[in-house]
Amino acid sequence: MFFGVLPVGLWGIGRYLEIDFRVLDGVLKLLHISVFHSVMSLSYIATYSGIEEDSPSCAIVRLVHVSGDRGCERKEFEVLMNNENLVAGRLRTLIRDGLIREEDGAYYVTPKGKTAAKVFLFAQKVLGIEMGG
After folding, report:
1. What is the pTM of this model?
2. Cα(2)–Cα(10) distance, rounded to whole angstroms?
3. Most buried residue, 27, 38, 111, 113, by CB count within 10 Å?
């Protein structure tokens, strides 16, 4: 959806600002707007999951921050990092968004989920990011 809006937005902005895309200046403006839109869209996509669901890293940092000078004991992390906090909420979100489906207690990827996985794996490969652990 983000990138589907781009051509329509460019057309509308071009009409409103009376940009002539047939000259170099107009093409540069088009490129500038396209890069800005793409960067903002990708930034939103990258941060949305951290906003929607509390990421484990954010939860750990918040717990350590709240503990202040007293520090944070391992038991506190174990209470925070249980199955409900880490997995159950994410499974509900993936099901709700149609990326996976549950059937007889097992989870299966949907066609939409396969597409999303391919995008993430491609980005991971391009950026040289290895699986964490």
Report:
1. 0.50
2. 13
3. 113
Is the CB of residue 113 less than 8 Å from the CB of residue 94?
Answer: yes
Per the CB < 8 A criterion, the answer to whether 30 and 10 are in contact is yes
Whether residue 99 contacts residue 112, with contact meaning beta carbons closer than 8 Å, is answered with yes
CB 49 within 8 A of CB 73: no
**Secondary structure E strands in the chain:** 100-103, 106-109
58 contacts 50 by C-beta, under 8 angstroms: yes
42-52 in b/e form (b: 16+ CB < 10 A) is eeeeeeeeeee
User: What distance separates the 2 farthest-apart alpha carbons in the chain?
Assistant: 65
Tell me which amino acid residue 53 is. E
d(CA 49, CA 36): 21
* β-bridge partners, 100: 109
Q: What percent of the chain has pLDDT over 90?
A: 14
C-alpha 69 chain-centroid distance: 33
Name residue 102's beta-bridge partners. Answer: 107
Q: How far is it, in rounded angstroms, from Cα 68 to Cα 76? A: 13
